[in-house]
Amino acid sequence: VKVTLPELTGQLSFYHRTGTDIIDWVWEQDTAPRRWHAENIADLSVSGMELSVFFNLNEIISPDFFIKHLHFNYSYSNITKSIGDFESKYALDNLKHKLTNITLIRIYKRLEASIYVIYQFREGKYDVYNPATFDLTLKPYKPFWLVNAKLHWRRKRLTFFAEASNIFDVTYRDISNVIQPGRWITGGVRVYIDFPVKTGIRD
Fold first, then answer.
1. Which residues, 6+ apart, have CB-to-CB distance to 82 below 8 Å?
2. Do the bridges between strand 144-155 and strand 111-122 make them parallel or antiparallel, or are there none, so unpaired?
3. Considering all CA atoms of the chain, what is the largest pairwise distance in Å, rounded to the nearest integer?
4. Bond prior to 63 in cis (omega within 30° of 0)
5. Structure pTM?
6. Which ranges constitute the DSSP H helices of 40-192?
7. DSSP codes of every residue in the chain
8. Please, which residues have CB within 8 angstroms of residue 15's CB and are 6 or more apart in sequence?
9. How many angstroms separate the CA atoms of 99 and 187, rounded?
10. Of the candidates 160, 155, 148, 152, which has an alpha carbon nearest to the alpha carbon of residue 188?
11. What is the SS3 assignment for 124?
12. pLDDT tens-place string over residues 138-184
């Protein structure tokens, strides 16, 4: 379902898919030592929805309003599984909830800022290795919030920008047991160059 107006754009979609004999890395609950091995272990049924809404506040409120755009995205997925007495390494780590908000702000003339707010909750678990006991345990993923920002100034073919990711230095894991980067800042200049395009075919 899609709606397109000058003031807003919205889109809503649903999906459902199934899979049988999904190959994954697993271990059996009561088997020692605990070692991952590949096996056809699961029948999965995945259902979900995706929602996207874009507000053009310069159309809704005023062309001079300092907040130009608001963009919301939300996705939801749910897995129904038949897996037996196994722990799964990848097949069940679905992204259950993800919410993203993008706000575009006019600061002064050509100077603008984009603010990104992200919420994410992933189902499933990741493995944690204990070198003292040589044991492997599983921990569930924790939900987290992230805030990113981008400052940019445009002039003809030039764009100067500075970006800050994970502004509040959140410690989180998105997939597997890898800790994602903390706060980091980048900047630079983009130059847009138009190259002439030749048309026509020569023999």
1. 42, 43
2. antiparallel
3. 74
4. no
5. 0.80
6. 57-60
7. -EEE-SSEEEEEEEEEEEEEEEEEEEEETT-SS---EEEEEEEEEEEEEEEEEEEEHHHHT-TT-SEEEEEEEEEEEEEEEE--SEEESSTT--EEEEEEEEEEEEEETTEEEEEEEEEEEE-SEEEEEETTTTEEEEEEPPPEEEEEEEEEEEETTEEEEEEEESTT----BSSTTPBPP-SEEEEEEEE--PPP---S---
8. 46, 47, 48, 49, 50
9. 26
10. 160
11. coil
12. 788 899 999 999 999 988 889 999 999 999 999 998 877 788 999 99
CA distances for 105 relative to 97, 109, 173, angstroms: 26, 11, 30
Tens-place pLDDT, residues 48-78: 999 999 999 999 999 989 999 999 999 999 9
Phi/psi-derived region of residue 12, left when phi > 0, alpha when psi is between -120 and 50, beta in every other case: beta
